[in-house]
Amino acid sequence: MASRLLFCAAALALASGAGAAATGARASGAPLVRGVARRLAARMAAPGAAGKTVRVGVVGASGYTGAELVRLLLSHPQAEIAFLSAERSAGKPYAEVYPQFAHVKALPNLVKLEDASYDGVDVVFACLPHAMSHKLVASVPARCKVVDLSADFRLADIPTYEKWYNVPHGAPELQPEAVYGLCELNRAKVATARIVANPGCYPTAAQLPLAPLLSQRLILKEGIIIDAKSGATGAGRAPKEGTLFCEVADGLAPYGIASHRHLPEIEQGLSLAAGEPVMCTFTPHLMPMSRGIEETIYVRTAPGVRAAQLKAALQAQYANDEFVAILDGGAVPATRHVRGSNLCTINVFDDRIDGQAIIISCIDNLVKGASGQAIQNMNIACGLPEHLGLRGAPVFP
Amino acid sequence: MASRLLFCAAALALASGAGAAATGARASGAPLVRGVARRLAARMAAPGAAGKTVRVGVVGASGYTGAELVRLLLSHPQAEIAFLSAERSAGKPYAEVYPQFAHVKALPNLVKLEDASYDGVDVVFACLPHAMSHKLVASVPARCKVVDLSADFRLADIPTYEKWYNVPHGAPELQPEAVYGLCELNRAKVATARIVANPGCYPTAAQLPLAPLLSQRLILKEGIIIDAKSGATGAGRAPKEGTLFCEVADGLAPYGIASHRHLPEIEQGLSLAAGEPVMCTFTPHLMPMSRGIEETIYVRTAPGVRAAQLKAALQAQYANDEFVAILDGGAVPATRHVRGSNLCTINVFDDRIDGQAIIISCIDNLVKGASGQAIQNMNIACGLPEHLGLRGAPVFP
Amino acid sequence: MASRLLFCAAALALASGAGAAATGARASGAPLVRGVARRLAARMAAPGAAGKTVRVGVVGASGYTGAELVRLLLSHPQAEIAFLSAERSAGKPYAEVYPQFAHVKALPNLVKLEDASYDGVDVVFACLPHAMSHKLVASVPARCKVVDLSADFRLADIPTYEKWYNVPHGAPELQPEAVYGLCELNRAKVATARIVANPGCYPTAAQLPLAPLLSQRLILKEGIIIDAKSGATGAGRAPKEGTLFCEVADGLAPYGIASHRHLPEIEQGLSLAAGEPVMCTFTPHLMPMSRGIEETIYVRTAPGVRAAQLKAALQAQYANDEFVAILDGGAVPATRHVRGSNLCTINVFDDRIDGQAIIISCIDNLVKGASGQAIQNMNIACGLPEHLGLRGAPVFP
Amino acid sequence: MASRLLFCAAALALASGAGAAATGARASGAPLVRGVARRLAARMAAPGAAGKTVRVGVVGASGYTGAELVRLLLSHPQAEIAFLSAERSAGKPYAEVYPQFAHVKALPNLVKLEDASYDGVDVVFACLPHAMSHKLVASVPARCKVVDLSADFRLADIPTYEKWYNVPHGAPELQPEAVYGLCELNRAKVATARIVANPGCYPTAAQLPLAPLLSQRLILKEGIIIDAKSGATGAGRAPKEGTLFCEVADGLAPYGIASHRHLPEIEQGLSLAAGEPVMCTFTPHLMPMSRGIEETIYVRTAPGVRAAQLKAALQAQYANDEFVAILDGGAVPATRHVRGSNLCTINVFDDRIDGQAIIISCIDNLVKGASGQAIQNMNIACGLPEHLGLRGAPVFP
């Protein structure tokens, strides 16, 4: 409980904007640009980091988030893949598991984790199922930084973790050390962290708009409803009847109603931002698409507050963040317009009913909702420009 | 205004269940069954209607709802297509416009409306864009019944229509005569109606669960939020950039936020049920699928009321309705499981937050949300068993 | 070998058209019509069969072909489901496995095969994986007819079966009794068969156009190339990485190049029709869609023969077959226009290169390519009108 | 005719491999790699080009190929967008037309072509419909290079163009100057070209495997059959009924049978390679997916030649080409594994029938089939490393 309160205080500071200035490691707020000149300049602006190459290992590389990490790292100018591990596929060329990399000559073969060497490795990305990361992270040499893409270190409160995930926490001694890696709102802490708990996909799309608004008391903490829709990559690559093509195509349905494990993570973030406990309603839906999360969020506004003010607050909050775009005018965020990119697009609309507003938030669940944000965290934690390897424009159509 | 109050009173009676017994024209509540014996028996149970063939004309047959009417009518044992009209495609065989009917020898060619003959026609289905049905309906001979699939006669209050659709009402003198054809809740009135306003797709999926609960005061009239998702058939067949394959596939986005024209229709129905004005929040989303509407509806319950009671009330309400299925246990309605059928599947879930519940409602927008319900209305209005031609099971996968 | 030659002789007779008149059990060639009057008349026209109800058991009902059988049987006026068996799901209500049947009250629960009773069962549909049907069929009481949807009895030549399926044939004594159920070309034999080997999906779409043309020597037996595309239902419901939504969506690839197990089945049929051995090239492709098979078939024509003659021959061949439609003019068959129906649509086109033609053939793999044809076979074998339960129009869009 | 023979001679030289060494402008055959060190080294290896920024204008930027050019150019380290023109959307921010660029601050607004300035522009990409590029290209200042993505300059023989496109050639005087930009096979000529005719999507996927095999006489020139499948982006963004979501989803069909306009382009390339006229069979199919072309190509091999030899020849041909990958072993090319990338993946398989082989070739139609190859042509023509801006890995899933 004590740790939670501490975490709260720090986060509140962050959420109110103070954190934004607290780290020199981030890019100087440049929007996505093109042209090698600006890029080189940007690199130079990262003191001490220019030219440095970060060597990374990916544990659990056979899943979709592993493949997406590899895709993004291949265009990262200062990262190098040291090893890719996977248990069942160990020994195979990575391209046998993910044929889209057939043309890439330099990728290492998959190895069992026990055969992977941490020698010279700076950062480990853990892409394991929940309840398996605790043990892994505990085994990583102390000089390696870890970005954990599972849920294992996301919940600061250990009993909450154990209740929702229905397993004992496997590394309670490390939990206080873990920093919640919602980059834009927790940059300062990530910059010095050794263990970064990479946020869940749904929580990322929810907290980016909601946390600043709660922190600034522009919306009420009661009655927040998050209606979320996700592409099927969110369900992973393990074969299951429910994610077969014929079971997902041309149809949709909610799942995990009032019981999805991202709920406590969302509520943790919103509570931190609000400075008091927040409960919310969250309904995920499985969509007939591969990538993307869209959240339609219904909020009650503080007395007299209209959508325009909510939007202005978000614009101010993210003015220097190139991966969070508050859309102009009445433009409606759509998942297809962030596909393949590290962007979160947001807009805010008045409801017809006074005191209510509707926020739309979109991300690519595999990028900003997983591997992209993981690399963003790596960049921050390693003192690299935050955007490195992440400026690829969305792939549409 | 007077007419609206009258309508209210009648509807309240219906919504409270009294209406269910008020008509002899409906099937005796048999669930979907198979076997010719039961079918024949069911037909016999419709007094005076056995053997009678209803001749129908379809105006605006070149759109998706027209095609779906034709598909359903082809397996209707007591219906016969007299004419199919369309302006731009007049003169063409129907199979040239909809090649899925290439094997059907007996379909009439498309004709211009002015060349269609109402001789011997019992029922006209109007599948025109809004603002065009008024004039058509006014021109149909008085002895023909009309089922209008447009929005033109759905709103009892003419100024409301004119405000939301931004055109003058073209046949105000006929409006009082129009009956809102939400079959399960308005059966008695439909049975004697000449003009049936076939409900919109979104409003059908919303009102079926919400109207009885409001009428029985099991939920509050405040704070109803309908997060709706629809397949692309809802946007029709007219070529538009926004509904091209590449603009819809692998992505989704809300549209018409707080401004969709189905809002006043939903609110009309909910207000009638509640006996007092109801405003609600409604957000439609365009899905990467062809058919189906799913609505995730967030409601505040009356003090002490839990999901189980809401569900019990709906089970009682629809016990004898074969096209509304309240699912057992925690089964989650999914659009793919109603695809191609006239079903509405519903279930109710407790939220984690006291006083809130979540209702899931699914239909096929082209069937129960349009052409299927239109035929159901025809059956009722013509004294046929309500289910005729509508018992096709969902097409999944 | 003897049995094969015999089979050949019979099939040649059939393919040349003699068979079409050989059975009185089939409908009198009526196209799909609507209206109860005609339907009732059609029923009456089936001597001895009117009113008779066929009781069926479905073994292996948990797969997609099982579910499609159930869907079609529910609208079959003279069929009744006696039992549905499945091993792993035994004990469950069918609607728990296929929620689209949640509204159907009268379906029996799934049982283990050992608990199914054949009492009063007229027809057994076997929907098991290959190599499992032999044993099942051998165990069915002799008074039951069997329609086997697996490949187990399709190949008359046992060594060919054993080579391609790489297992011993489990019931060689029954093989001579099995009739290949390509309805339109083998109707007379099916009418008296006890064991019907229901054709494979790809072979159905290939043989319907090719067999008559080979038999009439309008095309050469050399150089036939079948480029086939199938929806993912063809791969079944067992969870496999390769048929996950994200692995199938927005992409396509061939598989089983020059090695697919439907090859010997196609070649058997073409050889029978040609009266001499035919080898062909066959390349299946997995498509990002649920249902449908399209085959683009490249043939070399007999000297001087053009597409128009091929087409005329097919029109003559299928003039009285309501489920095979040779399209008019230059209309191009498309899978979406047969979706959910028992139709095979075909057209023939001249290539720019002399002596070559292109045939397009489309079916719904789950209907005409599996469960629909199985019911058609049941109808024929039981002396019912061939079309019963199968006249549902395609579901498009 | 003279020009055609000349072109032939040059192309034959190229196709036989001589061309590969003829240009110093291409990258030294490095596979796709990551790491800034190698990248910088690669840049330095391009004599005279290091640091140089190419300014480009995109004419017809409102179509899908325009958007894809912008996406790729944004990550091109030595390119800068000078203007984006479009007629109907002139005056709009580009992000209003393509919202995926909402976060990119530096893009110019769309202008009418007449308002675009060629000042300082090095390269013009023409993304106009066919028959409109002739005039445009004629109007571009002589010092600008042009990469024309239309069909207008692809056919060296003007009567062939006029016959297949059914319009007069609008700039016959420029045709001899145009170089057919199939990069890997025509690099030397592209290096010095002012007008590059960017190849069509289908022809690219067909010629890359077929041209070297024909040139080396490993396959016969008779009997080549190309069964091609394309995503819907190939049909462009202009609203048409046939490319609406509901008309494309869950189905497929061939189109343009024996009459598609890419046929003469394919035959031109194959004839050049073979040194004598080649006719082939080509059937495109519209797929329910956004991106990707797969071609299943049936060829007759020279006596005694097997798939392994065809494959070896292709491996040798493309050993130094990083964007053409001949897959290892029996790996089957799939469109999803090239999605978003500039790759062409190819493999070759023996048929069961002697003397026949099957070649599978996949590209992303918008990248290697259009905008990616256009940029590759720009790089070659401007003396930049060929891979600049084109090494993004495929986006899968």
Walk me through this protein's architecture.
The structure is a homotetramer of 397-residue chains. The first copy, chain A, is an alpha/beta fold and 397 residues long. Chain A folds into 2 domains: 2-199 and 369-381, Rossmann fold; 203-365, Dihydrodipicolinate Reductase, domain 2 (2-Layer Sandwich), CATH 3.30.360. Chain A contains 12 helices and 14 strands. The first copy, chain A, has helices at residues 2-15, 36-44, 64-73, 94-97, 133-139, 158-165, 183-191, 201-215, 245-248, 262-274, 307-317, 367-381; strands spanning 54-59, 79-85, 110-111, 123-126, 145-148, 178-180, 195-197, 225-230, 253-254, 281-286, 293-300, 324-326, 344-350, 356-363. Chain A has a 7-stranded parallel sheet with strand order 3-2-1-4-5-7-6, sandwiched between helices. In chain A, α3 (64-73) links the parallel β1 and β2. In chain A, α1 (2-15) packs across α10, α3 (64-73) packs across α12 (367-381) and α8 (201-215) packs parallel to α10 (262-274). Chain A is globular. The model of chain A is unreliable at 1-48 (pLDDT under 50). Chains in contact: A-B, A-C, A-D, B-C, B-D, C-D. At the A-D interface, α2, α3 and β2 of A face α2, α3 and β2 of D.
